[in-house]
Amino acid sequence: MHTVLTIAGLDPSGGAGVLADIKTIAAFGCFGAAAITSLTSQNTLGVYAAYHQSPEILRQQIVPVLKDYEVAAVKIGMLPTKELIDLVAAIIEEFSLKNIVLDPVLRSSSGFLLLEDDANQALCERLLPITDLVTPNLAEVEMLLGVRPNSADEMSVAAQQLSQQLSTSVLVKGGHLADEATDVLFDGQQTHFYSAQRIVSRHTHGTGCTLSSAIAAQLARGMKLPEAISQAKIYVTEAIKNAPGIGHGAGPMNHFYRYAPN
């Protein structure tokens, strides 16, 4: 069984963050380990507060795991401060970690800022260039590039620009496009398009966390990046279709839809 480490925030409602990551990793047959970067106060209606961990506390969570387990992939989510970004980058280099998938959690869907002002530069300059894949949505692309794509063709251009700028593969997620839910990968050489029928549902809490964790799990199992993304997108689509229907806002998906009792 391959081990996947997630480094992300805690969503107590279970729809996003490390709890969503662990469920996803388990659904793909991998063993999940986790380190928490920030304790958030949130539910399906919004994010109300965030209590960030210190670099020392985060290091004390991660290093013992790395010294004990052979970690096959790492998913990185919410890293709210420059100090935490610098720490995670140093650990990746210290332990020569591989299959690094980073979901740049910059702002919650309800508008709560999850990245401090001085952290964005550190993210782009220190951490993203040593990852294997970064997975921004359209709003995050706008924060990183200054321009928001409005079509699959514009997403393709943005993916190539970000890939060249950040020296990593980039998957631009188009879940907020008006027509099909199309994602675009530029892997440094080729552009890949992933389209799925748009599902009209309010149960989309944690889709970014889940997609990136699914990709990391498939990379840990030895799958190539384009196919890992394809399988992860199918998984997220089905998890939304089979959502449990809980919560009064943007409800969670069903990460274990494959194992639901008849």
Description of the structure:
This protein has 262 residues and is α/β, with parallel strands linked by helices. The chain has helices spanning 17-27, 55-68, 82-95, 119-127, 138-145, 152-166, 207-220, 225-241, and strands at residues 3-10, 31-43, 46-52, 71-76, 100-102, 133-134, 169-172, 181-186, 191-196. Helix content is 39%, strand content 21%. A 9-stranded mixed beta sheet has the order 3-2-1-4-5-6-7-8-9, sandwiched between helices. The relative contact order is 0.16. It has one domain: Ribokinase (UDP-N-acetylmuramoyl-L-alanine:D-glutamate ligase). Strand 8 and strand 9 form a beta hairpin. It is globular, with a radius of gyration of 17 Å. It has 8 helices and 9 strands.
The total count of helices amounts to 8
Number of domains: 1
- Average pLDDT figure: 92
The order of strands across the largest sheet is 3-2-1-4-5-6-7-8-9
Radius of gyration: 17 Å
Beta-strand portion reads: 15-25%
Under CATH, the homologous superfamily reads Ribokinase
Judged by helices, strands and strand pairing, the structural class is alpha/beta
Key traits:
262 residues; UDP-N-acetylmuramoyl-L-alanine:D-glutamate ligase; 9 strands; 39% helix; single chain; alpha/beta; 9-stranded mixed sheet
Write the layout of secondary structure elements.
Blueprint lengths: L2 E8 L6 H11 L3 E13 L2 E7 L2 H14 L2 E6 L5 H14 L4 E3 L16 H9 L5 E2 L3 H8 L6 H15 L2 E4 L8 E6 L4 E6 L10 H14 L4 H17 L21
Parallel strand pairs: 1-2, 1-4, 4-5, 5-6, 6-7
Antiparallel strand pairs: 2-3, 7-8, 8-9
